[in-house]
Amino acid sequence: MNTLPCEVSWFSALCDDDYEFLGVPDPLLQSSWEHCRNIALTAEKSGFDNILLPSGYALGIDTLAFAAGIAPMLKKMRILAAIRTGEMWPPQMARQLATLDQMMGGRLTVNIISSDLPGETLASAPRYRRTVEVMQLLRTQLNGEPVDFEGEFYKIKVDPPRVRTVSGRSPAFYFGGLSEDAREAAAQGCDVYLMWPDKMEAVKEIVGDLTARAAKHGRKLKFGYRVHVVVRETEEAARAAADRLLSRLDAPTGEAIRAKSLDSTSAGVRRQAELREAASDDGYAEENLWTGIGRARSGCGAAIVGDPDQVLKKLQAYQALGIEAFILSGYPHQAECDLFARHVLPKLHHGPLSIG
Fold first, then answer.
1. What backbone phi and psi angles, to 5 degrees, belong to 57?
2. C-beta separation of 299 from 327 below 8 A
3. For residues 171 and 110, is the Cβ–Cβ distance under 8 A?
4. Range of the domain at 22
5. CA distance linking residue 95 with residue 64, whole number of Å
6. Helix axes of 33-46 and 63-70: crossing angle, nearest 10 degrees
7. Number of structural domains the chain divides into
8. CA-CA distance, 340 to 333, in Å (whole number)?
9. Which of 348, 280, 278, 283 is closest to 311 using CA atoms?
C-alpha cells in the first residue's frame, strides 16, 4: 500500500450536473437543497476528507447559501466552497468566509474561480490579474490584517472585519487553470493548484512547471487532481457502467451541454477536448482513463474506470507525480460516492490537506 497521505474529496452537484444517463435530465437528480445535502451527508458518512461545492452563475443553486446550510450538519468533513471572483466585493466576501469557517469549526477551504461579472467579459490576462488581486485582498483580511491597497482593479482601505476564522488565518485557496495567465495567477496567489484529467506525462509537466513558477515568487504549491471515477468489482463491469452512462446521449445534446458552460472556450476545456479527440475508439486516453464523460460535460471530462485495484493503482501513480489532493465525482453522485467509499477509500492513506 502507498503510504503517502492524500486528501480525498467528493463533489456535491450544485450546478445541475447529476445524471443516471449523461445528457438525459432527471428531476430527481436536479440540483436542490435536499439532493445536494444528501450527497454531502453520504460523503461525510463515508469518510471523505472534503467536499467541493461548485459554483455556476446560471446553473444550479447558490454555493455559499448552501454551504451555510450544510455546515452545521457536517461534523468532520471539510467544505471546499467555490467563489467566483468577478462577482463580489472582497471585504464583504472575507466576512462571509470567516463566518462560514466559524460555522464549520475551522474546516473551511476555498476554491477560487477566475470569473467575469455576469453580463461582462474581460480578456484572459486582465481577468487573471484581477483574480490575483482578489486572492491578495481576501488573504490579508482573513489573516486579520488591515487593507491599504491600490491596484489595477481595486482601491481599498479598510480595517479587517471583527469576525475571524477559527484559526485566525486564511483558509487554503484551491485554484485551477491551464493557460499561461492562469498558471501565473496560481503561482502568485493560491495554495493548491488543481488540474483536470490528463495523461501521466502531462500531469508531470504541469507539476514541474507550476513548482518552478511558484519558486520564482518565493512560494511553494501543493497539487490537486479533479477527476471522475467509475469503480466496480471487475474491470468488465466498470467499463460496462461507463458505456451505460453514454447509452442515451446524442451528439447535438452533448454539444449543447458543453456550449452552455461559462468556461466552454477556456484553455483547460480545449485540452479536455484534445484529450478526447486523441483517445482510442473506445474513448480511453491511456490505461483506465476514459474520456467519454467529456462528450456531455464542459470542464473535467474524463474518468478513472476500473476495478478497485486498478483505480487505486491509478490514484497512487498520480501521488507519485506529486498529487496530494483528489476531488472525485461519479454518476449518479450519491451512488458512486458510496461505491468508491466501499471499494477504494479504505485502501488509501488519506486525511485533510495541511497547508503551511
1. -65, -45
2. no
3. yes
4. 7-225+322-347
5. 12
6. 50
7. 1
8. 10
9. 348
pTM comes to 0.94
Please tell me the distance from the alpha carbon of residue 113 to that of residue 55, in angstroms, as a whole number: 8
Residue 354 lies in a domain: no
Q: Which three cell numbers stand for residue 185?
A: 495567477
Q: What is the pLDDT of residues 245-260, one digit of tens each?
A: 999 988 776 676 666 6
Query: What is the pLDDT, as a whole number, of residue 58?
Result: 80
Here the CATH number for the domain that contains residue 107 is 3.20.20.30
The three state secondary structure string of 86-118 is HHCCHHHHHHHHHHHHHHCCCCEEEEEECCCCC
Among candidate residues 297, 288, 339, 334, the one with its CA nearest the CA of residue 315: 288
Q: Strand runs (DSSP E) across 196-319, as ranges?
A: 222-231, 284-286, 289-290, 303-306
Measuring CA to CA, which residue among 337, 267, 274, 239 is closest to residue 42?
A: 337
When pLDDT is averaged across residues 21-30 and rounded to a whole number, the result is 92
